[in-house]
């Protein structure tokens, strides 16, 4: 690490989070590591993506599944390889709905469905 740390946004508190992203036909990018041509994503209605994510969230909250395992199997984000871990970030680095939801969570809490231009997410605040 360099000693001159550059901060974007307003500085201040950084958070750390993991997420599970499910893309759908209204997502700004219709491809992912799981679906390089975007065939499945292009044919997935937003309602279907939300429904799938709600079911996955239920499995995690009930203890049937672990967040990082679900992320590795289902998330369309490249962070899936790391169990959904996005590392730490500050204000202004993520899409506003994602940022707002993450900052509103307590460490260890999982968000409800969060919609962004990328798709639909559930977020686990880790620090």
Rg calculated over all Cα atoms: 15 Å
Distance between the termini: 20 Å
Say how many strands there are. Answer: 4
Helix and strand element order: EHHHEHEE
Mind telling me the CATH class?
A: Alpha Beta
Number of helices, where a helix is a run of at least 4 consecutive DSSP H or I residues? 4
**What would the principal axes of the Cα set say about the shape?**
globular
Write up this protein:
Residues 1-10 have low confidence and may be disordered. 29% of the residues lie in helices and 18% in strands. With 127 residues, it is α+β, with helices and mostly antiparallel strands. A hairpin with a 2-residue loop joins strand 3 and strand 4 (119-125). It has helices at 39-42, 46-61, 67-74, 96-104, and strands spanning 15-22, 85-89, 114-116, 119-125.
Question: What are the main properties of this structure?
Answer:
single chain, 127 residues, alpha+beta, Chitinase A, domain 3, PPIase_PpiC, Peptidyl-prolyl cis-trans isomerase, isomerase
